[in-house]
Amino acid sequence: MDARGEFARGLAESTLSPLQIDTPAQGSTVTSPLRASGLACVFEATFGWELLQGGMVLEEGSAMSEEACPARAPWSLDLGPRQPGEYTLVITEYSMKDGSVASTDSKTFTVSGT
Questions:
Q1: In angstroms, what CA-CA distances link 26 with 7, 21, 22, 90?
Q2: Mean pLDDT over residues 78-101, rounded?
Q3: What is the pLDDT confidence band of residue 94, given thresholds at 50, 70 and 90?
Q4: Which of 67, 80, 90, 106 could form an SS bridge with 73, CB 3.0 to 4.6 Å?
Q5: From the CB of residue 1, how many other CB atoms can be counted at a distance below 10 Å?
Q6: What is the domain partition of the chain in residue ranges?
Q7: Where are the beta strands (DSSP E) in 1-114?
């Protein structure tokens, strides 16, 4: 690879994941009540989410970003008060064509006791 030439940044929709959890960060320690946020570029601004602990689904639902694709728009999710421990948040975009998983992101983090 010749690093002396020009570089061009790729388009966000072709180089970045359509779903992104920014907070909580992977491996972070957070406090309760739990709030998650990130960016999304998904059909009709809608995606699914699951909160897991020890591999078990504690809660699940759907959420929306502020705009639909082609915009990469912010989203936030209030997950309420949580007991101390390790959790995993999974967000998933499902294909409108056939319901298969189109994209996903997950973060594992710890809720502190203080």
A1: 30, 9, 9, 12
A2: 95
A3: very high
A4: 67
A5: 4
A6: 43-73+81-114
A7: 19-23, 29-30, 34-40, 46-53, 56-64, 73-80, 85-94, 101-111
The residue among 18, 20, 16, 15 whose CA lies nearest residue 76 is 20
Average pLDDT of the chain is 91
Q: Which two tokens stand for residue 113?
A: 């006791």
Using the 8-state DSSP alphabet, how is residue 108 labeled?
A: E
Return the amino acid letter for 33. Answer: P
CA distances from 59 to 1, 64, 73 (A): 47, 17, 24
Residues with Cβ within 8 Å of residue 17, at least 6 apart in sequence: 103, 105
Whether the bond into 84 is cis, omega within 30 of 0: no
Q: Are 25 and 8 in contact (CB under 8 A)?
A: no
| Cα 30–Cα 33–Cα 37 angle in degrees, nearest 5 | 70
Query: pTM (2 decimals)?
Result: 0.86
- 114 CA to centre of own chain: 25
**What is the chain's length?**
114
